[in-house]
Amino acid sequence: MTTEKMKVYFLPKTKLGKWAVGFGISYFPLMMLWYPLSFIGLGGYPALLAGLAGGICALFAILKNGERSFLVYSMLVPFLFVFVFLFAELLGGH
Fold first, then answer.
1. Looking at the domain assignment, is residue 7 inside a domain?
2. Which residue of 4, 67, 69, 80 has the smallest Cβ count within 10 Å?
3. 3-7, 34-38, 62-66: lowest mean pLDDT where?
4. Is residue 49 part of a domain?
5. Residue 1, CA distances (Å) to 4, 40, 66 in order
6. Does residue 93 carry a pLDDT above 90?
7. How many CB atoms are located within 10 Å of the residue 48 CB?
8. Collapsed DSSP state (helix, strand, coil) of residue 9
9. What's the pLDDT tens digit per position in 25-47?
10. Is there a domain that residue 8 lies in?
11. What is the DSSP letter of 93?
């Protein structure tokens, strides 16, 4: 039995991992623009879509392509926020 160390990189190596990081990073400024974007009718939809797209890309990069980047794993955090928010809205809303 060989014991190989799995390297964990900081930056993504796959194309899908880079997309996940791009979507995930765009999530944060879009969340800060939630209120100003509501004046033109967009509200938080761009942020929610960026969070979902980043999380889905991150999941595919991790599961399908074997991505081991710290940034790609961290893009699952906004995805979980958006997923829990949408799930709570579907269950009860306001």
1. no
2. 4
3. 3-7
4. yes
5. 10, 61, 22
6. no
7. 20
8. strand
9. 999 999 999 888 888 888 888 99
10. no
11. -
